[in-house]
Amino acid sequence: MEAPATTAQTRIQKENSARILEAALDVFSTHGYSGATLDLIARGAGLSKPNLLYYFPSKQAIYGTVLAGLMKTWLDPLRTMDPEGDPIAEIIAYVQRKLEMSRLYPRESRLFANEILQGAPRIMDQIQGELRELVEEKATLIERWQAEGKLVTLDARHLIFSIWATTQHYADFDVQVRGILAPTQDHHFNQADQFLSALYRGALTPKI
After folding, report:
1. Which domain holds residue 24?
2. What sign for the dihedral angle of Cα 71, 72, 74, 80?
3. Do residues 91 and 12 both lie within one domain?
C-alpha cells in the first residue's frame, strides 16, 4: 500500500515544482530579479510561502533553476545548425528557429534580457564558457563556408549577434511592435519570417 503513496507524492512534488517555476518565470520576467519576491511567486503558484520554501530554499535557488533551463532552451537552436547542410538554408533556418522562440517564449527572452542588462551576474560563467564555446564553434563553421565560396564574407560572430538582435526584438519589444503594427494575433511573426529570410538570403548569397 505504501508504494502508490510514494508515487503520488513524487508526482505532486513534480507538479508543485513546475507550478513554482512557471510562476517564477512570470514574476522574474515582469519584475526582474530585484523586484521579484517569494510572496509574488508563491501567489502565482497558488501555494503558501512556507510550502514554496519546502521546494526551494530561497529566491536565488528558484532563479538559478529558471536560468539553467533557460540557457539550455537558448542554446539549442544554434546547436542544431548542421555542418553538412546548405549554408544559407542552415542560417535562415536558425533565424526562423530564433524567431519562433520569440513567439513561443517571450517571457524567457525578457528574463534573459533583464539578466544581461544587470551585467549578467548570475550567468556570466555560462556566457564566458558554454555560450562562447558554441558561438566560436559555429563562427568557425560559417568561416569555413565563406572560405569555400558558399557565403559572402562577413564577420561571423557579428552575424550571429545580428540574428539575436533581429529575432529577439519581437519578444523583448513586443509591446512596441504590437503598438505600431496592431497585428491580428501573431500574424506579424509570419511577416517577420518572410522579411528576415529575404534579408539574410540577400546578404549572404555570393554574387556571381
Report:
1. 1-57
2. positive
3. no
| CATH number of the domain that residue 38 is part of | 1.10.10.60
Spans of the chain, pLDDT less than 50: 1-8
Q: What is the pLDDT of residue 9?
A: 54
Give 25-28 contacts, CB < 8 A, sequence gap 24+: 25/66, 25/107, 25/108, 25/111, 26/107, 28/63, 28/66, 28/111, 28/114
Q: Write down the residue that cell numbers 519581437 correspond to.
A: 170
Read off the pTM: 0.84
